[in-house]
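step=encode ok
step=design start
structure_in=
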């Protein structure tokens, strides 16, 4: 931990942004993935890190337990079809990357594939995009998983580079090739919140096998890699067919660039944007459509909004956003990490593991 903090300090990352955290809030380790190498090798720097290698036996066991508890037995044959012919069904670099991770961790390729789909569909979260009084856009998120205990140990921050330059950055887990939180420097930031639509496994896998739809986290990574403007990112996220409904929360580098995209599988149902001129200086999404009241048993929206209102537009910055995301129950026992980003100040991007 101290070595990690020291490394970040030496990179000048923490010196630029001082977020007051408690001793238990540990900034995650940062790695570089070289996109110019073959996909099979992309994640080797993470996988081969001795600190991560140590955790692989626990990861193996936890991954197996998680899969048994969340994946319905009737879809396992479909998953086998998918895994047996990965290149046929999943685009590059994802197929090659999963093979490389399976090879390096010794975890069965089928399990790696399942993990990637499970993470995509079970993320409970809070995401906020806000514009401060000076016009700077801030984007913060908590990622909550009911089975997140082992994920905290394998949470990493990755700079995806080409020719030595960071094309995009993402918070991820070892074994996970998609992106649920990411930034294209000076352009946009994206987070994904789950939008629960009941029984989705069969539909989702059929769509994947028919190559009619994308995994949400793959779309985010492709958008980070390929969209060269905020508007291009919004278009892509709003209108690319997906295997399941989801919320995309997007922040830009310019004034008023911030939106919550409510998606069904085919297209955007709603795009709710910042409108600072009319007083809407932040948009906030948990896991419920913003136009309906969240259920009483899971109302993280009201406490988060109250904390934003109390902080006020003059008071919002990286550290006050972190504080908002630390208010109970926005921060809860399932929260695995908090990430803070600001597309116009890419060096701000950091992620802290949150222990219950
Ligand atoms: C699997 O790993 C071994 C070394 O551990 C390497 O020689 C081999 O090329 C790898 N295979 C793939 C498909 O990445
Ligand atoms: C996480 O790692 C710590 C050591 O750093 C270990 O004590 C703990 O058991 C691990 N937790 C899980 C759930 O893997
Ligand atoms: C926050 O402020 C907005 C705008 O003034 C108001 O509509 C909303 O009810 C407030 N929410 C909470 C939870 O304080
Ligand atoms: C962030 O805003 C808070 C008020 O919400 C203020 O106390 C703090 O000094 C600010 N931090 C920075 C680094 O500007």
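sequence_out=
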């Amino acid at each position: 931990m101290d070595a990690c903090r020291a490394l970040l300090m030496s990179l000048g990352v923490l010196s630029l942004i001082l977020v007051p955290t408690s001793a238990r809030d540990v900034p995650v380790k940062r790695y570089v993935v070289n996109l110019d190498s073959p996909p099979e090798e992309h994640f080797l720097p993470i996988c081969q890190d001795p600190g991560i290698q140590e955790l692989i036996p626990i990861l193996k066991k936890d991954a197996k337990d998680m899969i048994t508890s969340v994946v319905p037995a009737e879809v396992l044959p479909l998953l086998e079809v998918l895994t047996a012919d990965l290149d046929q069904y999943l685009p590059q670099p994802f197929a090659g990357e999963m093979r490389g991770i399976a090879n390096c961790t010794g975890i069965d390729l089928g399990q790696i594939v399942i993990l990637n789909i499970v993470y995509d569909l079970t993320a409970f979260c809070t995401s906020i995009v806000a514009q401060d009084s000076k016009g700077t856009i801030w984007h913060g998120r908590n990622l909550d998983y009911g089975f997140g205990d082992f994920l905290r140990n394998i949470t990493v921050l990755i700079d995806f580079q080409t020719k030595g330059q960071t094309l995009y950055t993402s918070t991820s887990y070892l074994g996970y090739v998609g992106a649920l939180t990411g930034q294209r420097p000076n352009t946009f930031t994206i987070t994904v919140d789950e939008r629960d639509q009941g029984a989705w496994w069969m539909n989702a896998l059929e769509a994947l096998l028919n190559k009619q739809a994308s995994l949400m986290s793959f779309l985010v990574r492709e958008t980070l890699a390929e969209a060269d403007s905020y508007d291009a990112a919004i278009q892509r996220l709003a209108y690319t067919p997906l295997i399941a409904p989801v919320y995309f929360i997007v922040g830009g580098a310019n004034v008023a660039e911030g939106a919550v995209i409510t998606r069904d599988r085919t297209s955007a149902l709603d795009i709710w944007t910042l409108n600072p001129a009319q007083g809407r200086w932040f948009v906030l999404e948990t896991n419920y459509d913003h136009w309906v009241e969240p259920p009483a048993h899971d109302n993280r929206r009201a406490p988060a909004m109250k904390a934003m209102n109390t902080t006020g537009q003059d008071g919002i910055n990286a550290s006050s956003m972190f504080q908002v995301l630390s208010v109970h129950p926005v921060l809860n026992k399932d929260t695995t990490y908090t990430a803070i980003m600001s597309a116009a100040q890419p060096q701000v991007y950091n992620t802290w593991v949150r222990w219950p």
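step=design ok
step=annotate ok -> The radius of gyration is 19 Å.
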